[in-house]
């Protein structure tokens, strides 16, 4: 006989407003050089299921960048208009944590990457 577990009745998803800025930590291998010599985050940095982000108004760049090579930001509206709800998902030591819910396709990841801007630009080593 299987036991059905009830989901908690006190839990209610808190959706993030379209106007909120979201920050995503970018690893070194997710940074691509553009033809003009500047850098951008690769679309691979945003291709994920339940993409982990921080809500900018609830944190600082110093807290969000942690061990990442750079920090990129985009408006929640970008993800929401592509069909991905953004929900608050605080975790231990990070009340700003949120999730862009769903499996983000390659094409949608490219659109999010193109809409993003550096909050903290990449610190790349120079070959001196």
Percentage of residues in helical conformation: 10-25%
Shape: globular
The secondary structure category is: alpha+beta
Low-confidence stretches: 1-11
Element order: H for helix, E for strand? EEEEHEHEEHE
Q: In which order are the strands of the major sheet placed?
A: 6-7-4-1-5-8
Rounded to an integer, what's the Rg over CA atoms? 16 Å
Report the strand count.
Answer: 8
When the domains are counted, the total is: 1
Number of helices: 3
> Span from first to last CA?
68 Å
What's the pLDDT, averaged over the residues? 89
Q: Please summarize the sheet with the most strands.
A: 6 strands, antiparallel
Can you characterise this structure?
The protein has 128 residues and is α+β, with helices and mostly antiparallel strands. It has one domain (21-120). Helix content is 16%, strand content 30%. It has three helices and eight strands, in the order ββββαβαββαβ. It has helices at 61-65, 76-81, 106-115, and strands at residues 21-26, 31-33, 39-41, 49-55, 70-75, 86-88, 97-103, 117-120. It has a six-stranded antiparallel sheet with strand order 6-7-4-1-5-8. It is globular. 30% of the residues are buried.
